[in-house]
Amino acid sequence: MKHEKIQPSKAVIEALKNHSSEGLSRRDAIKMLGIGGVVGVMGMPPSLYADEPSSKSGKQAKILVVGAGSGGIMALARLRSALPNADITIIAPNEIHLYQPGQVFMAAGLYTIDDIVKDNKDFIADDVTWIKDEVASFDPDNNKVVTRAGKEVSYDFMVVATGMEYHYDWIKGLTEDDIGKNGISSVYLSDLEKGTAKGGTVTWEWFEALKEAAASGKKPTAIYTSPNTAIKCGGAPQKMLYLSADHLRKDDLGANYIFATNSGKLFKHPEIVASLEKVQKGYDTITNKFSHNLVAIDVKNKVATFEATYEIKGEYDEDLEEYDMTEEKRMVDLKYDFIHIVPPMSASQALIDSPLGWQKGTAKGWLEVDPYSLQHRRYKNVFGIGDVCGIPLCRTGGSARHQGPVVVGNLVSALEDKALKEKFDGYTVCPIKTEYGRIIMAEFNYEGLAPTIPFLDPAEPRFLWWAFDLYQLKPMYWYLMLRGWF
Fold this sequence. Notes:
By secondary structure, the chain is an alpha/beta fold. It is 27% helix and 24% strand.
């Protein structure tokens, strides 16, 4: 049975369509969307209600934005307001904009593709030069980039917002074409350049197939993976686990669920871990396989091969009063009936090959920016926003929203030869869907948990957050965030 599809208010949508982004104030948009109370409760900054950004400059400059996902479009909107005399160019091949969190609700049977795609031209103003191509190489020493078509584009300041790339082919035996077949799904599957978001569709079909198998009388085995790279929305693998398990539970069905993650625990913060352990006890058998990274798959025979890391206890050290511990890696084969795969992810190859990426450590290849100012550590006229930034945490749309005013405020200061005062605190948010109708809104920053409603236990699954995520966040994204108003 398909779950009820949620539609935004038609009156709200029509009202917003009848206003241009230039003629509708933030205050009016908030009133139309009916989110004023939520904004107040969630402790949003007073600047949300201001019609003009706090940082502006009348100077002329050539500004380049690379990427037209969430971060790039949010930065672009704010830059247009902050720098009215600037010559702004954006380089991005995708004419379609995808509301990426919506793929999870598609997988749950609550959204369709029409709910999560719009034309990027709706968010890129006519006074912005839009080069519908991709950057093939960055040359920050000469303040220019080169596109795939060979076009050179120079800049005075650049904002890099190239996001992440998915690599299903890094898993031996797997190709992107395998997703949606032979019991394999992945909610991430999409092609922004072509405007497709197949991940949500194939995963909803996977939910239904899993239920049908469970109803046949034999308990199927379902594996949910999480790789050894940074990923977009770190909670997504568990969202798929709990939503699919709840989809079965509603019909008193179950499966043998295996959560196989490269991580050594369910979540970064112990308060959230304790809550998730309690959630897991409410489902049929869930087995956690920590320190397990999917490296190969036999699609035909349905066998997944993991590189598992184990700690081996050695001799006891009397001086330190502890055992010597060493790591040992083993290859582990797990049979499955169904498997949900989160692919390994990386920055774009153009960035990895450029001087802009980190040159060492686990951050190698990601944009080398200061974690607070989001300014490049070596090229001071380059800033970063969104998933591409090589900083701790922060690969969610919520992070990009908080980074937007920091990036633009500091870019304006740099243009004016002033000290950079805006600071990003590392805010990110992970709405972990623990069942249909309940979400743990895990908000945290560089210091630890950072709930916007301090008197609510941030580890408690709540309907409030489910309603906010499902009903209100999407219209807020389309009509406020992407316009730089939120």
